[in-house]
Sequence to fold (228 residues):
Amino acid sequence: EIVLTQSPDFQSVTPKEKVTITCRASQSIGSSLHWYQQKPDQSPKLLIKYASQSISGVPSRFSGSGSGTDFTLTINSLEAEDAAAYYCHQSSSFPYTFGQGTKLEIK
Amino acid sequence: EVQLVQSGAEVKKPGESLKISCKGSGYSFTSYWIGWVRQMPGKGLEWMGIIYPGDSDTRYSPSFQGQVTISADKSISTAYLQWSSLKASDTAMYYCARHDTSSSWGAFDIWGQGTMVTVSS
Fold:
């Protein structure tokens, strides 16, 4: 089973800051890595697919990069509405897995 | 509009059986994999398994294999997650979600609203 390890687990940030969340896979997964945002009491929402592909309707301040084992989700100029948990997810080999999540708090 | 609508919240006793549903609309239900994801209270997302409604090909996480059954009825565009004997540790929110392509290696682009399952004596 491929283990995805996110860092940090928690981050407290101020609006307009740039935020970077990383996801490391226990073995190479190519570009089969996706990012989701989950706000309290809501269903997860797809932010970035296949490591760096943008999603229609998602603000352009969200971007993704990486391949192989190391991936990054970047949020440029953080806004208050970005307070949420963020998860990475691999669909390279079964069983597919999620990272443990990163909780973002806005100061 | 493409959407997945899940059945309502359930409160059950340990040992009881349960089947929750996820109805797809606005797209070709038989052409996209549907997955199930567990979220225990205050915890992260866990991938349980996926099914291709076109031919009922199903893949499970080893953590859930034998504990739940994933199925689909393509005639009514509905996927299911069922338990034969619930435990208190099954208490969680369960989400269904659709892959973004017809391949088995997709991202989950459409999510249901979630079904809360509470198991308590």
